[in-house]
Amino acid sequence: MARKAGMRILENASVRAVKAGIEPQTKLLEIRTLGALVRRVADAIVEDAERWSADLIVIGTHGRRGLSKLFLGSVAEGVVRISSIPVLLIRGTDRSARRRRSGKSGARRARA
């Protein structure tokens, strides 16, 4: 299920890049390890990008701050710290925030 979601995200990003006149190359990196430390995941991403001779690493971030960042860590931050390849961070938004901005909510509105 996660693999399908990842592929869907890459396909959508590729379509947007092509529309913007960019010829993207994408790769879904699957790291199979139990209890992996953030540092190990970031290392795997950077090592693979270097083997691939990537021009740019684009990675999503949750934008966590404070204690949640301290306890959960940040793969994106780890990649930025160790990569010699430029890194573009894309901040994600949660669905409820998008619904609020668009005026949609989970509750149905009563008609007058």
- Overall CATH class of the largest domain: Alpha Beta
Mean pLDDT score: 77
Shape summary: globular
Q: What Rg, in angstroms, do the CA atoms define?
A: 17 Å
Percentage of residues in helical conformation: 40-55%
Distance between the termini: 42 Å
Helix count equals: 5
Total number of β-strand segments? 2
- Class computed from helices, strands and strand pairing: mainly alpha
Task: Describe the strand arrangement of the main beta sheet, using strand numbers.
Answer: 1-2
CATH topology of the largest domain: Rossmann fold
Poorly predicted ranges: 107-112
Any idea what the CATH superfamily of the largest domain is called? HUPs
Count of structural domains: 2
If classified by CATH, what would the architecture of the largest domain be? 3-Layer(aba) Sandwich
Main β-sheet: number of strands, strand sense, barrel status?
A: 2 strands, parallel
**Helix and strand sequence:** HHEHHEH
Q: Approximately what portion of the residues adopt beta-strand conformation? A: 5-15%
Describe the structure.
- This protein is mostly helical and 112 residues long.
- It has 2 domains: 1-30, no CATH class; 32-95, Rossmann fold, CATH 3.40.50.
- The chain contains 5 helices and 2 strands, in the order ααβααβα.
- The protein has helices at 2-19, 38-51, 66-72, 75-82, 95-102, and strands at residues 57-61, 87-91.
- A two-stranded parallel ribbon has the order 1-2.
- It is globular and about 40 Å long.
Task: Name its key features.
112 residues; mainly alpha; Rossmann fold; two-stranded parallel ribbon; 5 helices; globular
